[in-house]
Task: structure prediction
Amino acid sequence: ETGVTQTPRHLVMGMTNKKSLKCEQHLGHNAMYWYKQSAKKPLELMFVYNFKEQTENNSVPSRFSPECPNSSHLFLHLHTLQPEDSALYLCASSQDAQGFGTEAFFGQGTRLTVV
Amino acid sequence: AQSVTQLGSHVSVSEGALVLLRCNYSSSVPPYLFWYVQYPNQGLQLLLKYTSAATLVKGINGFEAEFKKSETSFHLTKPSAHMSDAAEYFCAVSSNTGNQFYFGTGTSLTVIP
Result:
């Protein structure tokens, strides 16, 4: 399997639940990203990992907790979410976060609904 | 700081007509520019990118874009629209400091038979 794979594709969770989103890339990249895509809003960068180290946290609430155990895997742990957190969560990877002009490759996303 | 502005959140064209999707960028350093396409319930797929080589960039599916520094623009075009081109299109910019891609708000393209 190649590219960037996200699981699950769809997730419905209650506000008191704890769940995790998983992202795996088979491209040999060293940088991985989490984006949030809400209707009518630009893609919001949430977190950046470069060589397994978190390099960006764009003021994301603590109810979102990322984990990057190695350069191929990225998780987003979710707990006590709010309905406004419902969105499409996209994972991406690139050669590295300092790569000049290298593009990001995206997974198909996880459609999250918080009820 | 880098940013992109996409003019027109919705564009409709007839099948076979010219597609023109507009993107203007703001960057204090030479930018790297990208166009991505997103089909419903899918991730973003790269159409093409500009990395300071040729100003006219050809991408997949017959799309191309021209970098115009004087106009700070990177508009996406396709000579003849196909029904399968209906999707959401995003312009993005990154800089030579890397690390982040800044996306526009997207343009939804409708192709009318």
Q: What stands out?
A: The two ends of chain B are 41 Å apart (CA to CA). Chain B has a mean pLDDT of 91. DSSP finds no helices and eleven strands in chain B. The longest strand of chain B covers residues 19-26.
